[in-house]
């Protein structure tokens, strides 16, 4: 099926791929990754409607702390307001539409870099130089559009969809799997943005399976990962998928710190690998957390927010936390680089006229559940 195939034909191919039981399932057809028309559908039916993760709440702990994010072409900033709440606003000036804030920082007011229109931390316009002379200019009625923002277990989620169910309601069935892990209080040590040359789904699927770990990650974590100890959720969930895996004691990170008193037995070396649909993925280990939040930037480009955090007892244990954190981030970046090589190579392969989907391994069950999610999302009105 070519990338120019009609959308209904692509949708039918997806439904067929998703409907197969895992032991008869194949990878999704390459045209679902390379078709521009299909991507437009994903933007409208998935990314404009779902909750997307913008990072961790502890990235903005004090009043006035902010960081930026964007959903498709909508620049957004997240800020801790005067009441201590995290809120999100359109990052576009109400005057001539300049982007207001960049990166991260702290501010008392938000001053547009172009003509100095100024907003408070609740998004209200509070100053506009020389505008008093304009008849009927009423600052009191002008405020930045607010974007829905919810925090759950330390994650900050945003959506453009005012009708979407709350994050807590969607994650209710996930909570029992996270018991014992103190995820809400993990402390962020890094957050970076990047763009890779692949379809967003190539990276989502890659993060969801440990099948490639002994091979693609043999230089980093591959040797510390007993493949056969992978376990999946007992049932398929609508809004997320997950697996658990264990790490050997030899692993650089991934096992509980002696000061961790909540995880018991096997759980002390068990990580939970979660994908919150469509594109928030994290590996929650007893000692650290590693996450990706993805958005398409074209069929062959994926925009990535990558971050890492440490369990509180791990952060507290290190007198030279910066040096330890830098070591952890360096290690995770090396793992990311290994993923980048394979993920970009997959996308390259998908563009070949000779490419066709192969049979899936049982270890790729989450990727198959992801196909099921896509099929439901595309079908939904
Ligand atoms: S564009 Fe922001 S003040 Fe003019
Ligand atoms: Fe990987």
Q: How would you sum up this structure, described in words?
A:
The protein has 381 residues and is of the alpha+beta class. The protein has nine helices and 17 strands. The protein has helices at 7-19, 31-34, 36-47, 167-170, 200-207, 213-216, 312-317, 321-350, 365-379; strands at residues 52-56, 65-71, 74-80, 86-90, 104-106, 110-111, 118-119, 125-127, 146-152, 155-159, 187-196, 231-232, 240-246, 270-276, 280-284, 288-296, 302-310. It has a seven-stranded antiparallel β-sheet, with no helix packed on it. Helix 1 (7-19) packs across helix 9. The longest helix is centred in the C-terminal third of the chain and has 30 residues, at 321-350. It starts with 6 loop residues before the first helix and ends with a helix. The mean pLDDT is 95. It binds FE2/S2 (inorganic) cluster and fe (ii) ion. Residues 206, 212, 216-217, 339 line the site of fe (ii) ion.
Would you kindly provide a brief summary of this structure?
The protein is of the alpha+beta class.
Classify the helix fraction into a percent range. 25-40%
Order of helices and strands: HHHEEEEEEEEEEHEHHEEEEEEHHH
- Tertiary shape: globular
The averaged pLDDT comes out at 95
Q: Give the count of helical stretches.
A: 9
Bound compounds = FE2/S2 (inorganic) cluster, fe (ii) ion
Major β-sheet strand ordering? 1-10-9-4-3-2-5
Question: Residue ranges: pLDDT <50 for 5 or more in a row?
Answer: none
The total beta strand count reads: 17
Instruction: Estimate what percentage of residues fall within beta strands.
Output: 15-25%
How can the largest sheet be summarized? 7 strands, antiparallel
Global Rg:
22 Å
> Which class of secondary structure composition applies to the elements?
alpha+beta
Q: Between the first and last Cα atoms, what is the distance in angstroms?
A: 25 Å
């Amino acid at each position: 099926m070519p990338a120019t195939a009609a959308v209904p034909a692509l949708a039918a191919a997806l439904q067929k791929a998703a409907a197969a039981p895992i032991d008869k399932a194949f990878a999704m057809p390459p045209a679902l990754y390379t078709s521009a028309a299909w991507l437009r559908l994903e933007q409208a039916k998935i990314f404009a409607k779902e909750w997307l993760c913008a990072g961790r709440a502890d990235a903005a702990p004090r009043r006035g702390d902010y960081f930026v994010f964007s959903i498709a072409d909508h620049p957004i900033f997240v800020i801790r307001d005067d009441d201590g709440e995290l809120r999100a606003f359109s990052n576009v000036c109400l005057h001539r539409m300049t982007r207001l804030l960049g990166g991260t920082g702290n501010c008392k007011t938000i001053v547009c870099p172009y003509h100095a229109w100024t907003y408070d931390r609740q998004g209200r316009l509070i100053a506009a130089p020389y505008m008093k002379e304009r008849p009927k200019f009423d600052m009191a009625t002008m405020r930045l559009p607010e974007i829905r923002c919810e925090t759950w277990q330390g994650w900050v989620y945003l959506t453009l969809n005012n009708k979407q169910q709350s994050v807590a309601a969607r994650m209710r069935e996930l909570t029992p799997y996270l018991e014992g892990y103190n995820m809400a209080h993990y402390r962020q040590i890094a957050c970076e943005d990047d763009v890779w040359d692949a379809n967003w789904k190539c990276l989502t699927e890659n993060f969801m399976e440990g099948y490639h770990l002994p091979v693609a990650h043999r230089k980093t974590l591959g040797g510390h990962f007993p493949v056969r100890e992978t376990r999946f959720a007992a049932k398929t969930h609508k809004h997320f998928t997950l697996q658990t895996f264990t790490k050997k004691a030899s692993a650089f990170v991934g096992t509980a710190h002696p000061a961790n008193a909540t995880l018991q037995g096997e759980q002390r070396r068990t990580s939970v690998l979660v994908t919150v649909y469509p594109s928030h993925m994290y590996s929650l280990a007893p000692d650290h957390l590693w996450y990706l939040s993805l958005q398409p930037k074209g069929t062959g480009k994926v925009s990535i927010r990558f971050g890492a955090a440490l369990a509180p007892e791990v952060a507290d244990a290190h007198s030279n936390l910066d040096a330890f954190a830098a070591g952890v981030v360096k290690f995770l970046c090396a793992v990311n680089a290994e993923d980048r090589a394979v993920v970009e190579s997959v996308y390259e392969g998908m563009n070949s006229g000779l490419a066709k989907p192969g049979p899936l391994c049982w270890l790729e069950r989450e990727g198959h559940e992801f196909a099921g999610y896509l099929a439901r999302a595309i079908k939904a009105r």
